[in-house]
Amino acid sequence: MHPAKSVIYFTTATGAGYGLFFWLALLSFHNHLPADKAMGFVMLAVSFGLIITGLLSSTGHLGHPERAWRALSQWRSSWLSREGVMAILTFIPMGIFGVYWVFLDQNTGIAGVVGMVGAVMALVTVFTTSMIYACLKTIPAWHNIWTKIGYLVMSLMSGAVLVMALTTVFGMVDIAFHLFKPVGILLVTGLIVKAIYWRHIHSGKAVSTAESATGLGGFGKVSLAASPHSADNYLLKEMGFQIARKHATKIRLIAVILGFVLPFILIGVAMHYLQDMGRVLILCLATASCLLGLVFERWLFFAEAKHVVTLYYGQDKV
Amino acid sequence: MTSLPKTAPKKKLGLVIDLDICVGCHACATNCKEWNTGAKSAPLTDLNPHGNDPDGVWFNRIHTFETMSETGDSRTVHFPKSCLHCDNAPCVTVCPTGASYKREEDGIVLVNEDICIGCKLCSWACPYGAREYDETEGVMKKCTLCIDKIYNENLPVESRAPACVSTCPTGARSFGDLGDPNSDVSKLVAARQGYNLMPEQGTKPVNKYLPPRPKQDGVDAVPRTLEYADDEKGAAPLLARWVDKILSV
User: Fold this and answer.
1) Closest alpha carbon within chain A to B90
2) Is B13-210 a domain of CATH 3.30.70.20?
3) How far is A306 from chain B (nearest CA, A)?
4) A176, A190, A238, B187 - which has most CB atoms within 10 Å?
5) DSSP line for chain A
6) What is A5-313's CATH topology?
7) Could you read off the pLDDT of B12-70 as tens digits, one per residue?
8) What number is the ipTM of this complex?
């Protein structure tokens, strides 16, 4: 599949933004974050910023962005519609929680409960995002449980790395230490989930074949003798993207190192061997590395996924 | 509304494509383009049509496949492909706006271009590559089964068939109601074991494909070779046999 930049940014940024909100709400609910206006504003601004720019970016690849509002109407059948509806509904508890924190100096009690409602809805929204892809039977690399688990874990993981860096920036090192274990566990879990995902999509099991696509299997092995047109058409440009497949192993290595291994090491070093500014800098570097790694991971998620329509254009199995 | 019709359409208009007859001439694709670039989904935009890398929207594309059996018996099969107007159309249910819909009255799958946002998700959901995005219009386009031709009362009755069917010089494409077991197309499918493409995708296509007929081994197995006329009775006309006999002395 063609990896559109807008959709890569949309999935990684909203994932991180919702993940960050989840952790902010959870920490507030458990009385771990002081209801400081400035801090609340900055942290929520990062979360809202990621989510809003991500959602706007997703409308960037539309043929008619001005009609995007129409996408909210078909929630009964369409996961894309459900995602849009959930994203908007989730802004309600998120917004109320933000108003409590930033304007009323309150992030526990009622505010904490509203925040937790938002946190749960944020995860549901991330799930609906994953379902946009996981519901497509035509793309076996997406139509599996590891797509859904992957989106949820990556969201929680990038959110946790972000919240750890942000709390350290605001000098709350004790909270960062509190988060040390969950962040480590999430980075390891994330890597395991991706490893299983990659193993799954490269297991070589075919869902459809050139024989089932043409129904000519009874006559023997089917191969394409002549394609319909001399130049690439929309279908090949959109579904037959080749570049990432060619470099898949290298990109996967980059994603693993930047997304999981390097943040794990940097966070360990920052928490155990560094103080003050050094710690803040290295944690910010770990966050940047993690988010960049997830961009590579997501690029591969799109580019590596094969569509069954390619069976009509020379692929023998998908 | 992009949910599929609650009650499955009784009438299921669609095509039956005979792979035994198709010669791969692309006339169906050409006439499809000709009709539809002035019809409901007009224009069928072309990008760089006279350059090295022409691209554009087509509702109908003709592939050519080769099959090779284990015994080395090969076949060339021309394979026209357009929207199959699936009963269980995944392109309809994924649409977030309701632009993509299946008609309850005849099962035809259409796009309402006035509310399509151009998200392309329907083209991702279709296993058959039946939907093509129009870059200049920013909307998705697809085969309409020539809805503006098959119901067009300004046309003579015999012309009220999809453009691809009207034009096919070999009669490889048939059009009719596949929901009616007594229709000509349904009988054809039953007689020739018509089948679905990619049945494992669960789309339940309305359009059916008829397989190439088996080769007639025994008759065609030993090729006839050109030989001198012999004097056997019936091998050549009488005069020729006489001439042959005289000159052979």
Assistant:
1) A136
2) yes
3) 11
4) A190
5) ----HHHHHHHHHHHHHHHHHHHHHHHHHTT-S---HHHHHHHHHHHHHHHHHHHHHHHHT-S-GGGGGGGGS-TTT-HHHHHHHHHHHHHHHHHHHHHHHHHHS--STHHHHHHHHHHHHHHHHHHHHHHHHHT-TT-TTTSSHHHHHHHHHHHHHHHHHHHHHHHHHTT-HHHHHHHHHHHHHHHHHHHHHHHHHHHHHTS---SSBHHHHHT-GGGSEEEEEE-S-SS--HHHHHH---HHHHTHHHHHHHHHIIIIIHHHHHHHHHHHH--HHHHHHHHHHHHHHHHHHHHHHHHHHHHTPPPGGGGGGT-SB-
6) Formate dehydrogenase/DMSO reductase fold (1.20.1630)
7) 999 999 999 999 999 999 999 999 999 999 999 999 999 989 999 999 999 999 999 99
8) 0.93
